[in-house]
Amino acid sequence: MRKSIATVSVSGTLTEKLEAIAAAGFDGVEIFENDLLACPLSPEEVRARAADLGLGIDLYQPFRDFEAVPPEVLAGNLRRAERKFQVMERLGADLLLVCSNVSPAAIGDDELAAEQLRLLAERAAEHGVRIAYEALAWGRHVNAYLHAWRIVRMADHPNLGTCLDSFHILSRGSDPIGIEAIPGEKIFFLQLADAPLLAMDVLQWSRHYRCFPGQGNFDLAGLTASVLRAGYAGPLSLEVFNDVFRQASAERTALDGMRSLIALEQNLDGVTHPAVPAGFAFAELADPDPGGGTLGGLLSALGFVRTGVHASKPVELWSQGEARLLLNAGADAGEPALVAIGLDSPDPGGAVKHAGSLLSPVLPRERAPEDVPLDAVAAPDGTEIFFCDTAWLADFAPAAPARLADLTPGTPVAGPITGPITGIDHVALTQPLHYFDEAALFYRSVLGLRPQESLELPDPYGLLRSKAMSAPDGAVRMVVNIAQVGAGHLPWQHIALACDDVVAVARRLRAEQPGLLLPIPGNYYDDLEARYEVDPELRRLGVLYDRDGDGGEFLHLYTVTVGRVFFELVQRVGGYQGYGAGNAPIRLAVQHAGA
Amino acid sequence: MRKSIATVSVSGTLTEKLEAIAAAGFDGVEIFENDLLACPLSPEEVRARAADLGLGIDLYQPFRDFEAVPPEVLAGNLRRAERKFQVMERLGADLLLVCSNVSPAAIGDDELAAEQLRLLAERAAEHGVRIAYEALAWGRHVNAYLHAWRIVRMADHPNLGTCLDSFHILSRGSDPIGIEAIPGEKIFFLQLADAPLLAMDVLQWSRHYRCFPGQGNFDLAGLTASVLRAGYAGPLSLEVFNDVFRQASAERTALDGMRSLIALEQNLDGVTHPAVPAGFAFAELADPDPGGGTLGGLLSALGFVRTGVHASKPVELWSQGEARLLLNAGADAGEPALVAIGLDSPDPGGAVKHAGSLLSPVLPRERAPEDVPLDAVAAPDGTEIFFCDTAWLADFAPAAPARLADLTPGTPVAGPITGPITGIDHVALTQPLHYFDEAALFYRSVLGLRPQESLELPDPYGLLRSKAMSAPDGAVRMVVNIAQVGAGHLPWQHIALACDDVVAVARRLRAEQPGLLLPIPGNYYDDLEARYEVDPELRRLGVLYDRDGDGGEFLHLYTVTVGRVFFELVQRVGGYQGYGAGNAPIRLAVQHAGA
């Protein structure tokens, strides 16, 4: 389908917007009037620039407060419209968006509205212009899409149709299935925007929090399916007002918008997701201090054993249960940091092809000739995501053990290494502020993860906003965070390791290497013990605890931070699905105090 | 009155918070439970630290979801309370805030609520603790302050009283005059928070947008007066949840909170404002390129004449009508920038004393011995604010004219210089993000300006948030902005000059020095002419236009930007009180394109 986007959705001058939109591969644009008013180019020059870039001008918008007005106001409104038709002729735009009247002067009379819109359509026809009438969610009398359609049908003019906007429909809780009552040829335009569910004034919600399809909580695929079933054949057009996008790179935002439309189309086409990962193959850490240094020491203490060395690169494999960590001495990070995630993929080739179809940057296969080929894409924060089958392990020759206490010295170790840690439970990445919505869409569309809880957590120096996502079966869980904190406070990443018995691990660490555990304040346990009857040993060991409404329990502990990264050990009991978010502020405060 | 603040109101660890709060001069604190839970100090250590800092612990808060529950829940709640009483004993806190129950399990039965709160008060009494019961605005059954008081009276226990919170009262639109029905000794605590008027879910509004008294739109003085009339003798305590304060400096936030309480007290005491300025005495610009360079050239073109030279500093006085601009070659700004504002003050000494009483940094009088003394304070963004009578002009000897075209060469000029510009209409300053609320309070409390409109304006690379303030008679108008824009886009300051005939000035500049005028896109005029019947000359000259609902008109133009600063010429017709905000996005787009 033809793909468009309103110029208001990306940042910059009109020229910059058009260039970014064209570069992202859109077919057309909606020219948002304020963007034109502030532009030094004449409408003819804008038209030529768009044409040079291969962009059609699919809509000019918005025209406000026109219909259902007293006769003395109508004359001025028609005069205003005539001027806009002239601009549109110069611009080469033949479709004008008319929003339902929000003025206190508007009259609640559908027949009057229809009569005046018919008059407007007649005038428009003289200029070769068509009118798309849209119900704003906060329209004074007309705020429901079926009401706008009723008026359009009443007016009965070939140059008058309706414009549907997913935000205006879904934010009011209207059921989009009624769209199928509208003949497709009378749906002149379709604007798409998603949004997070927020309890606030709908006008403010619309102006500041719209996002691209798949980034919020609305069912855009369901709505679009109804629009297509009605017979609509026009463009899918994004119209987003978003405070963050306003400040971000126009190129990147436009590309992300295009990704959202491609994902929506795939969803509509029933494209099954080839890439839903079946588990974590590995997590890769930059380790500037290799050979059992700080990171290796920490892993040893957690019961990991070095089980392999890469055939051609300075990378070690450390294992325990199904948890595999790569320590890469060649990664260019300067300090220990999470640089890559390997996902068990049922179809690595298909997965990377799917990622590529969604405009994710596919990474070059930089490796030695004899290495197993690995397919990878870059996540929005730069983390490399590898799609793996088990072949990747062939690159790692069994290594001399790094932890002599557990193994006979000198014996190469291939695994399996059994211990209390059974695998990787989840990985938490901190995103740059401007890419939070992009990250949500990436993990949802490229990896096929489903959104779970979204939270705001207090940090001593600000707020942490957090979104959790998981594979349908829970085999892969990812948490993306943004840290809205004061200057000078760095965000951390972490790997949460699934564990059979967190208390046992804590007991051993407390005895052997207590300095590796993040100290948890006694006041936390005073509160915990006020709320629940918990084993007093949790306090002695520094193990944190959470309980869900169904009696599921979560025991977890944190290591100290090494570079940008720390580890969490988590034990899920009785179907607990969360992440112990209530304890995160305690962790953040202790981490800041020690940073 | 005793002054307190909740630890949640400022950023940092609990220790950092206490230090900042003590440094700002508070008498006590409310310990916010989460701050204690995350603190490595024991309650006894926190108590000692507070005592060392001279801070009393006036309240421990909050205790949630206690009252009006089924019997099986009550037992657990009492157990939880017992643990908290123990913590409070260790902490040396004797007052516990209990918020009205928000749980779905709560029962809408006032007698049950009263009975259980009475039981809680009895238990509390055994620990020397008192209970302050507060109606949360989103409480499940109890969400109005008079309802909470009704339950407290019904429970009738000396250790049970009510806590009043201005946000919970005013956000619901409750009339605070009913507070006078509560005996003062049963008001155990008073929490104060202001807020901007926002149409959103009250819980989110409370958690993210509270601010200090005088920074928002609530009538805190009226509410506090009712509380005092009721006989309350406890502390005035600030409790603010604010996303910006969370990220800002604790020291600065605490000081600003103290300023808000002092201003509130002055307001209650009927302290009349000694410093409301009668006009702008001058605006001072850093001019690294003196002697009729870029800034001087621009001023000459606008009809200003150099009328004085400072006796001991490299500062020139440029005048036209009542507009006086100082060009300071010695200011340390690196580029042309607005560095100081002089205000005509009926009582400069009183004004600076008043500013000092509100904790504004009074600036040292750095000047040569023979100079006229000048009183000045620093505004939150660092701009110097001088309080002047006319004596300051004595420092400036008449200068040789800088604009020969208008005056006889070689003749020293003392003024008055008449021209189309009659004075300074307003000054617009861009604030650092974290000091926007502080700036609003500063201009309101220190200068006695009244808040006018608050706006959000689209910028090509973000949003501009803007607050206008003015003296009651309009003689002094200030606009403070914050620019929430992407990296690399600098904010600008500007001086708006009142003008009798903007069109005449534009005509002359267009003919003589068109490069000094900010070019306004033709598309702007296409739209303007669609909306209003305006003189086509506005388009030729680049004069912008606005009209208010009462037929007041505003004609204005902008100069190009020099360094960080530009000039606006404004002509107000028919009582227009605004700032042409609708045209600002056009200006911003053109400025960015030329930057």
UniProtKB/TrEMBL annotation, chains A, B:
Mg(2+) binds at residues 426, 494, 568. The keyword Metal-binding applies. Its EC number is 4.2.1.118. This is 3-dehydroshikimate dehydratase. Pathway: Aromatic compound metabolism; 3,4-dihydroxybenzoate biosynthesis. Its cofactor is a divalent metal cation. It comes from Nonomuraea composti. A divalent metal cation binds at residues 134, 165, 191, 239. It catalyses: 3-dehydroshikimate = 3,4-dihydroxybenzoate + H2O.
